[in-house]
């Protein structure tokens, strides 16, 4: 087979697909269907313009509860010189919306009328009066909704290609339609392939991969107006995949063939496409996601496009955004989704391969007047980076990266309103922050935290790039937490230091402590492997201080250079056997059912610029510190001391 | 009955409802249900946080196709001094995603390895080699996705209250869940009442009102995450309405009782609420929409809130936005919808009742650097004002209006991207513009036109508030169209004048011309009633010129002061019998099946500032002038001459 992965630029890849679609007569809306005008029409796209069939109102309607009159017969009425009009011949009562009698051309609101009984006295208003008395003239067509006020028969009400919103349904009904011509929804087959895959909900063994790309792709397709069919998992067998695709094209407009799109020994997608039709593209210079396949599978009367979607979940989801959404927009005759774009300041430099358009997920927050974008984990296997992403920055081909502090254009995944309610936390990680995020979500705040360690948090504070920093920096000389560092690192940033928790640091070891580890002294055992925290982390500073006190050289500890960024990932390294022990908090050990050898107590503080300490944005967070439900939940985590919570340690100006 | 309409401020009304909900234990999420994690979970709101059940990856996984090794055994390998590793004991082949053998701690990508056969020669790569040769050392954990790289078991993946997006579904599946706890959808009964109502699709007679508010409200409820039930129309009978409500509360969480919420003779809503429970609010100081009713209907174990929704369609839809959406957000435990807000310049002054919060629908466009907001029709019966609205401005209580040119804060209904693609047209109306709007919609442009007449268009051009103006201003001295006016009104705005169409102006009369109208001279007949166009309209200038030529005094024409803003509404006035004739274009007469007496030919031009004439924004519009499909469609309208279409009449600098 002549299948070989060769990346081409994104625009060229898209153009090849468009050309093939055009050649096949598939470049516009797929077809239309008449649908009933009810609430299920919401979100459908109009296949044809809606022209008003009848006017609205379709007769002259009273705009008020009142009396229909001939305006010329009211001329001369004055407060001091009232006029009477006989009921039935000169006036009749009309409710709002009632048609005007043929002879009438105005309405006098009920509150401006004195109803009269037979004797010319004011009547009780129980039934229609004999006459009415008025004390002001009324202009022609006053308080009347003339025929066609809203829509005139034959006028354009909505253009083709319009996606129906609630009010549109009302307007279409109001001008006389009970059906609409909607664009047929594109039918999309999502076929997961891979012998190592197991379906969601099935037992998972070592080496199994939970198959959820088809779930993400199907949800994307449905959200964009298509109709997805999820196929069962197909094993990595050329013939089986080929047969499944050949069957799917009979009833679908598009095939998404997931994974097997690279060039490995079990990557059959390109071969399947070649055997069933034409391979247009194998490899696109985008990151993540480059082993994308584009092709056309032969079928009568017209071929069916197929997209080979890469297997890594972030690559798969981005392939959906880059290739599937614009194709569905084209087939639905609507405009492609246009994310809102904002300018933001990059918090960290990004390096990027010069040959690719690089789609980098970003956390976005507004700190003071600055809108900031912090790059999230780049791995294409890290779907939580998409979950956490507030937006995306595209580093174009030809660029090798962007320095920190540069302006970047962010395509937002969230509304700007949500960004404004985001509390940006850069600093040390503590599991209490996860609990806090959970509680803040119910209080109209989003907590976005970047774990860069305590020192990294102070640096972010100095740059004005975070609303607060979690910090547990032990000053080895004074034995004091945080304040000496704050004085050194933040001479120009007045802050309030508020205690969050006291907590225990200790050694996380495998269940049952099989290697018999008890002290920092044991770490030099060459049979053991330690896992460390990154430089600048409070835990790392604590470790280095204690090692120094004990006269233990870091070089003597196997695994010392191996760094992790959070307590939980340290524990995960131990749980997986990648390391025998690491220094972390008790809660991390319990989370993964590991043993914990307590060694030290420390205080974890929130360092908050005074500028934000009493802000409306942070108010719900400060309230939490006294919230009994929150405290109960934190207290349930092991190794935490809640006594200091909320205590103002100092204001450093 | 003690029911009396008394408006209270919006915030007080909302607070009364919230207090009643709190007293009834209904102020938070309604309950939860376990749902299967498939694509139907999209858009559901999490009732509980999602904590990772297993790590992802849940084992150390190869990140590449390659060979698993012990990194320490690769130490010392150099390009000039390669190293060999024995297959099975020192290395094994792994595909991307495969688990690493227990003994391995790194992967060497396949492209960096030379496979060797039994004799130590390079092997063909057909099957697993006997050994591999490497020319570089590899660091521990290189090309490995360590366990927990994406999610560590027990970590917070998503908070409660989060609305599920496609990638979220993947993350939840990836950390071991096959179900989620979702907030139960609020069930909302929508009950239309009114003897004058007919259901969508039923025959419509004079006085009938097509009932579509329930359609709009149900679609809103569904779009906001609720589950709407539309009830059949209930006649204006107190007992019947009461029984329907009493039945609906048994199976619903909220009742929307449409119309009958005012204080007229057939307005039973307030009485029904009082008879079944408690009337909290009757009348809210918002415009449109003030006769809103809020109440609680008694039921065990807890009462059911009821909202009496006003009957006018714009009032009904805004009542949905103001009262129903926040309530559903509360019950779903999600944040209320937050429209994106932008600052814009008001194009026309708005007057507003001081006592009400006034919600004014706006057309929004960006002309040059200015973002402009033009108030749309204010009538609460004009649902097309909601259809056309790009956003809304709230004029708060206490303000009597806002002068033109002031900055206003607009809550957008569209994405800012759509606003950027909006062509703003202020000026004279021609039906060709409707056709143009329809064609532009398929070309990623939205045409928003405000019909203020030809002169009004030139004024808008002078103020820099429109991308072009349609104009057909006859200069009575030179007989020339538009150019003399442009020279006078736009001395500082260089423009290009491009002909759109030639067209016939004439008298629109009832079918069969029963009154025998043939010339402008006939208009003075006191038995006839004329309908005029507004001052500044090209058609009005044409009429006044011709009357002057004929020596006819405007005062001698009955109906001359009665003004309409478009050709179609002039024709509608004739069709409805409100007038006997008017001056308009032939297409307007045909649209409403009226007769047309041609009198004059004229040219209708597009006046485009040079600044925009060659812009990317207007390019699709300029292309249309040469588009055969567009020309065919315009040619199908009666009374149009396409010969001049696209001709550049002049550039006036």
In short:
Chain A is built from 17 helices and 38 strands. Chain A has 653 residues and is an alpha+beta fold.
Question: Overview of this structure, please?
Answer:
2 copies of one chain form a homodimer. In chain A, a hairpin with a 2-residue loop joins strand 24 and strand 25. In chain A, the strands form 11 sheets. In chain A, strands 31, 32, 33, 34, 35, 36, 37 and 38 form an 8-stranded mixed β-sheet that branches. Chain A has a 6-stranded mixed β-sheet with strand order 16-13-17-21-20-18, with helices on both faces. A 5-stranded mixed barrel of chain A has the order 22-25-24-26-28. In chain A, 24% of the residues lie in helices and 28% in strands. Chain A starts with 9 loop residues before the first helix and ends with a strand. The longest helix of chain A has 20 residues. Chain A is of the alpha+beta class. Chain A has 17 helices and 38 strands. The model of chain A has no long low-confidence stretch (mean pLDDT 92). Chains A and B meet through strand 11, helix 2, helix 3, helix 6 and helix 7 of A and strand 11, helix 2, helix 3, helix 6 and helix 7 of B.
| Terminal CA distance of chain A | 70 Å
State the total count of DSSP E strands of chain A. 38
Please identify the structural class of chain A as seen in this structure.
Answer: alpha+beta
Contiguous helical run count of chain A: 17
Strand content of chain A: 25-35%
Overall geometry of chain A comes to flat
Q: Mean of the pLDDT scores of chain A? A: 92
Please name the two chains that share the biggest interface, counting residues whose Cβ lies under 8 Å from a Cβ on the partner chain. A-B, 122 and 122 residues
Oligomer: homodimer
The largest β sheet of chain A comes out as: 8 strands, mixed
Unreliable stretches of chain A, pLDDT < 50, 5 or more residues? Answer: none
What is the CA-based Rg of chain A, rounded? 35 Å
């Amino acid at each position: 087979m002549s299948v070989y992965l060769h990346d081409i630029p994104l625009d060229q890849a898209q153009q090849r697909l468009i050309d093939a679609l055009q050649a096949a007569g598939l470049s516009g809306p797929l077809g239309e269907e008449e649908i009933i005008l009810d609430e299920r029409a919401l979100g459908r796209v109009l296949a044809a313009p809606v022209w008003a069939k009848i006017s609205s109102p379709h007769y002259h309607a009273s705009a008020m509860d009142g009396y229909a009159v001939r305006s010329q017969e009211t001329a001369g009425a004055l407060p001091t010189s009232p006029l009477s009009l006989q009921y039935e011949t000169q006036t009749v009562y009309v409710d709002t919306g009632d048609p005007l009698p043929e002879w009438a051309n105005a309405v006098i609101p009920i509150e401006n009328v004195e109803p009269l009984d037979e004797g010319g006295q004011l009547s009780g208003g129980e039934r229609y009066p004999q006459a009415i008395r008025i004390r002001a003239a009324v202009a022609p067509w006053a308080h009347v909704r003339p025929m066609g006020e809203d829509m005139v028969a034959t006028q354009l009400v909505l253009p083709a290609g319009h996606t129906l919103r609630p009010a549109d349904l009302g307007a279409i009904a109001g001008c006389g339609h009970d059906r609409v011509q909607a664009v047929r929804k594109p039918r999309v087959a999502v076929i997961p392939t891979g012998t190592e895959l197991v379906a969601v909900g099935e037992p998972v063994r070592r080496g199994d991969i939970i198959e959820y790309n088809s779930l993400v792709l199907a949800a994307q397709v449905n959200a964009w107006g298509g109709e997805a069919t999820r196929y069962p998992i197909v094993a990595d067998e050329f013939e089986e995949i080929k047969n499944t695709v050949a069957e799917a094209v009979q009833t679908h407009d598009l095939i998404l063939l997931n994974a097997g799109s690279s060039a490995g020994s079990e990557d059959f997608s390109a071969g399947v496409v070649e055997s069933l039709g034409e391979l247009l593209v194998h490899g696109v210079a985008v990151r993540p996601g480059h082993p994308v396949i584009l092709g056309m599978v032969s079928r009568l009367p017209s071929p069916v496009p197929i997209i080979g979607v890469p297997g890594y979940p972030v690559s798969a989801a981005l392939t959906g955004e880059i290739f599937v959404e614009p194709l569905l927009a084209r087939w639905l005759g609507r405009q492609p989704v246009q994310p809102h774009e904002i300018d933001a300041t990059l918090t960290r430099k990004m390096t990027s391969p010069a040959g690719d358009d690089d789609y980098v997920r970003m956390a976005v927050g507004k700190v003071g007047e600055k809108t900031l974008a912090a790059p999230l984990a780049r791995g294409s296997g890290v779907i939580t980076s998409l979950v956490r992403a507030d937006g995306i920055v595209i580093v174009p081909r030809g660029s090798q990266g962007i320095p920190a502090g540069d302006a970047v254009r962010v395509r937002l995944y969230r509304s700007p309103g949500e960004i404004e309610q985001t509390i940006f936390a850069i600093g040390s990680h503590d599991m209490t922050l996860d609990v806090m995020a959970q509680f803040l979500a119910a209080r109209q705040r989003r907590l976005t935290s970047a774990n860069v360690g305590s020192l990294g948090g102070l640096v972010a504070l100095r740059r004005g790039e975070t609303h607060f920093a979690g910090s547990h920096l032990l000053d080895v000389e004074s034995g004091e937490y945080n304040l000496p560092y704050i004085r050194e690192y933040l001479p120009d940033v007045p802050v309030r230091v508020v205690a969050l928790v006291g907590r225990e640091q200790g050694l996380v070891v495998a269940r049952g402590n099989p290697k018999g580890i008890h002290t920092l002294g044991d770490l030099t055992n060459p049979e053991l492997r330690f896992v460390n925290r990154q430089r600048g982390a409070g835990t790392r500073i604590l470790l280095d201080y204690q090692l120094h006190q004990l006269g233990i050289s870091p070089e003597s500890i196997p695994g010392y250079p191996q760094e992790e960024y959070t307590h939980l990932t340290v524990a995960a390294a131990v749980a997986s056997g990648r390391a025998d022990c690491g220094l972390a908090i008790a809660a991390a050990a319990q989370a993964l059912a590991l043993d914990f050898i307590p060694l030290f107590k420390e205080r974890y503080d929130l360092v908050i610029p005074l500028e934000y300490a009493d802000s409306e944005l942070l108010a719900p967070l400060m309230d939490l510190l006294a919230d009994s439900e929150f405290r109960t939940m934190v207290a349930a985590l092991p190794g935490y001391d809640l006594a200091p919570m909320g205590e103002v340690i100092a204001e450093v100006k």
